[in-house]
From TrEMBL:
Its EC number is 1.6.99.3. Pfam families: Pyr_redox_2 (PF07992). Residues 4-314 form the FAD/NAD(P)-binding domain. Keywords: FAD, Flavoprotein, NAD, Oxidoreductase, Plasmid. It comes from the Bacteria. One of its GO terms (molecular function) is NADH dehydrogenase activity. This is FAD-dependent pyridine nucleotide-disulphide oxidoreductase. SUPFAM superfamilies: FAD/NAD(P)-binding domain (SSF51905).
Length: 402
């Protein structure tokens, strides 16, 4: 009787998990194990680029790659995970009732979503760049500003959250606004950050570069007070200060997919499942977690994977290899990703590239921007649909730093 590896999610971690499983099964000559990937669409949404223009084009088709390596794609949404009975329920527009899929091993790679706390008006009035559709909605809104009467609010963008996504988004906004409103428009881009420093999670290393870039771009920031309320005309801060703005972009934080709550295992404060060195969920024999849903150690120094494509791609390769090795009795490879880098886009100013968990600055300005462009347009995209190339690229020993 054939067995089944079931992968949930077609993001960076899910795609690479499925490809890595296919690579190992091909290597050991096993044709009796089916790989099934469930996702809403057979395409990779390139989320790290959604702060850029044309977010609707930030997609990469996966169906031909899946066909080339023998991965069966099932379109739909996983509604229920039943670990005890080793099955999931999948809903789709094509079926009137959920489809039940059994599994011998499950790889949960359902990713993360933007965290939205209970703030008055946040859902109704704030935009975000978390998903392709929401980023496209923001772009359409910005383009529509040209049809509105001139006002301070029309010309003002508030970016809530001064972390990685918030900084990258804010750095793009002055040029985007002037493109729509005219080169001589007086535009205001303001980052609101609850912490006492801009880029609190990025550390002190790149902060002087970030401050220089934002200052030269004309971006301002307000620290030490978060957003208390959002409405159609702007935001009110926790300090009581009011900012009139027609555009409010929420970027403050992410949480693992809610599907992790259906897995009977320990989770961290972001909803990520605790996994062992092979990315198997601790306490379970048939479930692996990877990407943004995995709380995984990257080294022996106490560092853990970030919710980023940099870690998701290699987490996916490791999970896919290990889940297949688990089924066929082959050697598993412990996940390890000790080299950590960041490359923060700073819009027309350039970028800043750092290495190590202390984020030592290595490149700035145009040189770092060239690297960021290469990452965003080449390194994070799927391989070609050539079978040999796709399988070779999924080797977990091929660590990619991006």
């Amino acid at each position: 009787m054939s067995k089944r590896i079931l992968v949930i999610g077609a993001g960076f971690a899910g795609m690479w998990s499925a490809l890595a499983s296919a690579r190992l099964l091909d290597e050991v000559g096993r044709t009796d194990i089916e790989i099934v990937l469930v996702a809403p669409e057979a395409e990779l949404h390139v989320r790290p680029r959604l702060y850029e223009q044309n977010p609707g084009g930030m997609k990469a088709p996966l169906q031909e790659i899946f066909k080339a390596v023998g991965i069966r794609f099932v379109q739909g949404y996983v509604e229920r995970i039943d670990v005890a009975n080793q099955q999931v329920e999948v809903s789709s527009a094509a079926e009137t009732s959920p489809v039940v899929l059994g599994f011998d091993r499950l790889v949960l790679a359902a990713g993360s979503r933007l965290f939205k706390p209970q703030i008055s008006g946040l859902d109704e009035h704030a935009f975000n760049v978390d998903q392709v559709a929401s980023a496209a909605t923001l772009e359409a809104h910005i383009e529509s500003l040209a049809t509105r009467p001139a006002s301070i609010a029309r010309n003002t963008v508030v970016v809530a959250g001064g972390g990685f996504t918030g900084i990258e988004t804010a750095a793009e906004m002055p040029a985007r606004l002037r493109e729509v409103l005219g080169d001589d428009a007086q535009v205001n881009v303001i980052i609101v950050e609850r912490a006492g420093e801009i880029g609190p999670d990025l550390g002190a290393g790149p902060r002087p570069v970030i401050i220089q870039a934002l200052t030269e771009l004309g971006v301002k920031w307000k620290l030490g007070s978060g957003v208390a309320a959002v409405d159609a005309a702007g935001v009110t801060l926790e300090s009581g200060e009011r900012i009139e703005a027609s555009t409010v972009i929420w970027t403050a934080g992410a949480r693992a997919s809610k599907l992790t709550a259906q897995v009977p295992a320990e989770r961290d404060g972001f909803g990520r499942l605790h996994v062992d060195n092979y990315l198997k969920v601790r306490g379970l024999e048939t479930v692996y977690a990877t990407g943004d849903v995995a709380y995984a150690a990257v080294d022996d120094a106490g560092n853990y994977a970030m919710m980023s494509c940099q870690h998701a791609m290699n987490l996916g390769r490791s999970a896919g290899h290990n889940v297949a090795a688990d089924l066929v009795g082959d050697k598993q490879i412990p996940y390890s990703q000790p080299k950590y880098v960041t490359c923060l886009d700073l819009g027309p100013w350039g970028a800043v590239y750092t290495e190590g968990w202390e984020r030592e600055v290595k490149l700035v300005g145009a040189e770092a921007k060239a690297l960021k462009t290469k990452i965003n347009t080449e390194w994070i995209y799927p391989p070609s649909a050539d079978r040999a190339e796709a399988l070779a690229s999924a080797d977990p020993r091929r660590i990619v730093v991006a």
